[in-house]
Amino acid sequence: MTEETKKNNSALLWVILVVLLVALGALGYLYWNQNTELNELVEQMTIEKEELQEEYEDLAIQFDGYQNMDIRNDSLQDLLAREQQRVQDLLEELRQTKASNARRIAELKKELATVRAVMKDYVRQIDSLNATNQRLTAENIQVRRENQQVKEQNSQLSTL
Known about the structure:
Layout: H1 3-66, H2 74-96, H3 102-159
Helix pairs in contact: 1-2, 1-3, 2-3
């Protein structure tokens, strides 16, 4: 090999080395940038998971409060108990779900909205039934009074 070929090979080697170093630097930066973004996403999902968990816990507390309601409709009481159990199951699943599982957390968020809507409907039905029951109870008392008055009048007329 000639001296000139050695210089060309040496220069080519330095160019390749510089290009490789620049490429490694760029790849290192991309890795660091993506890792930072991933960490931010995981942190964001962790916060979202904690907020969702608090919402489920609040809903569970609301269901506990409904246990004190005067529910005379057995089917509604059973439906409410099933929904309460569903909330407990979903809360437990949420606690076991990793914060990085964004898809499942989004699904659980949708489930929470569904359970809230169902719960509001059940509460509305319970309130409506309780109002109807109170109205019918008052009406029944009125009819019994009127019936008693008619019996008394009938008794008075028959004694004459």
